[in-house]
Write a structure and sequence with these properties.
Rossmann fold; about 15% strand; binds adenosine-5'-triphosphate; 2 domains; 8-stranded mixed sheet; alpha/beta; binds magnesium ion; 5-stranded parallel sheet; 13 strands
Length: about 425
């Protein structure tokens, strides 16, 4: 939904109107009567917030009566009253009537801020006929309990693969301290997730879209902050807002994460349909994966929303793939082969899945992308498990769930 901000000055004295106009946004119109402000064209079908700046020549009673009516009939209009002299009785009457802000005609320097604040607050007011926006996207957070197992490789490859087949796809880099989605995709973002977080509650899709960077595959990326210091701006609430805005219009939203279950990652997982947990075939990665799966279940992410992906599953590292499901107590949903062509493509500024779609790694990614694109519930084939070996590995992986505080304190550690 595009929100248009209109500003109208109501003032009969042309000199005063011109003085007020200097502090108003471009396109502001001037009318002589309060009623005339509502006859202005609203813009075809757009959602409009209106800031009505009522000048000192307008009769105070008429201004306050109009404000009271607006508060009742059109809560997306804000009145800013400019008085010759600011006294307490005028101020009290204005606030009672619902005036957004009262300024003296000698304090016009504060007007620009008052107008932008009026629009920002009015944008958040729901119209009576507003209906909740239905979610369109399948939202998938790619997570791992250990660094370097391939989260960014999986999220960038899957997202590019979906975008290249024409699915409207967005990828959010939530590794706010050390995010490398942009560098992996050879992108140079002008804006990033910290800019989106800074807008706060009034962030809308149009503003958010202007902060995305487009990849050659058609994928749109919301990059991690260029400066790690800006990561503090990104609250769990801003993460939820970003994902929900994208989920309303995209087919797929993917989220890449740091190797820690911090509050932002939890907010992303809460807002996601699926948590795709990545691990490699080594005991520490599997032990941490098992703890992460238990923790997610404990905090209310049902096992149906959890998927296990084994990366580099053909690597000869002593743990057999067949042992893993019993050890985890969970089926393995997907596997990816190991290939030096994966980092090789990144080093050339390419994405393997689009540069070489027939590569075994690309074929495996395409299969997962197809599963993600299905409208119904995803049913990845489970890998069968020889019970004896599985039981041995399971004993080695016996751990308690991650403690949330401990996990949070490791935020950003890569
Ligand atoms: N299937 C694969 N075959 C070969 N190399 C791979 C594969 N998957 C990932 N890699 C390589 O492993 C390294 C780590 O991968 P990646 O950056 O995706 O991990 P990560 O989990 O995102 O790491 P971090 O926790 O630091 O964010 C990269 O150099 C990547 O190219
Ligand atoms: Mg990463």
């Amino acid at each position: 939904m595009i929100v248009t901000h209109r500003t109208v000055i109501v003032e009969t004295d042309t000199t005063m109107a011109a003085a007020i106009a200097t502090a108003c946004p471009e396109g502001t119109s001037v009318v002589a009567r309060v009623d005339a402000a509502f006859a202005q064209p609203a813009g075809s079908g757009d959602d409009v917030t209106l800031a009505l700046v009522i000048g000192p020549s307008i009769d105070l009673d008429a201004a306050l009566t109009a404000t009271e009516r607006l508060r009742r009939d059109d809560p997306r209009t804000a009145v800013i009253l400019i008085c010759r002299r600011l006294d307490t009785s005028t101020l009290a009457a204005a606030l009672r009537a619902g005036v957004h802000e009262v300024l003296s005609q000698h304090a016009l320097a504060d007007l620009a801020h008052a107008i932008s604040h009026a629009h920002a607050t009015r944008s958040r007011v729901k119209r009576a006929d507003d209906v909740p926006v239905p979610r369109r996207a399948r939202v998938t957070t790619v997570f791992a309990a250990k660094g370097g197992v391939g989260k960014t490789t999986v999220s960038t490859s899957l997202a590019s693969s979906l975008a290249a087949r024409g699915e409207k796809t967005a990828l959010v880099d939530l590794d706010v301290a050390f995010g490398d989605v942009a560098v992996t995709l050879n992108l140079f973002p002008a804006r990033d997730i910290s800019d989106a977080a800074m807008v706060g509650d009034s962030l809308d899709l149009t503003t958010l879209e202007s902060m995305l960077t487009v990849h050659a595959s058609g994928l749109k990326v919301l990059a991690a902050p260029h400066e790690p210091g800006r990561s503090e701006l990104i609250t769990p609430e801003s993460v939820t807002r970003v994902i929900e805005l994208l989920a309303a219009t995209y087919d797929h939203v993917l989220v890449d994460t740091p190797p820690a279950l911090d509050e932002r990652v939890l907010a992303a997982i809460d807002t996601s349909d699926l948590a795709l947990l990545v691990a490699t075939l080594d005991v520490p990665a599997l032990k941490n994966l098992r703890a992460a799966l238990d923790t997610l279940t404990l905090i209310g992410v049902s096992p149906e929303r959890q998927r296990v992906l084994l990366n580099r599953a053909d690597a000869e590292v002593g743990v057999s793939l067949a042992d893993v499901p019993a050890a985890l107590g969970r089926p393995v949903s997907a596997i990816l082969p190991s290939s030096r062509d994966v980092p090789g493509a990144v080093n050339r500024g390419e994405v393997l899945v689009t540069a070489n779609p027939r590569h075994p790694f690309s074929v495996a990614i395409a299969r997962i992308a197809t599963d993600l694109s299905r409208a119904d519930d995803i049913e990845f084939p489970a890998i069968s498990t020889p019970p004896v070996a599985g039981a041995l590995l399971r004993d080695r992986l016996r751990v308690g769930p991650w403690r949330r505080a401990a996990a949070t304190s490791t935020a950003g550690a890569a």
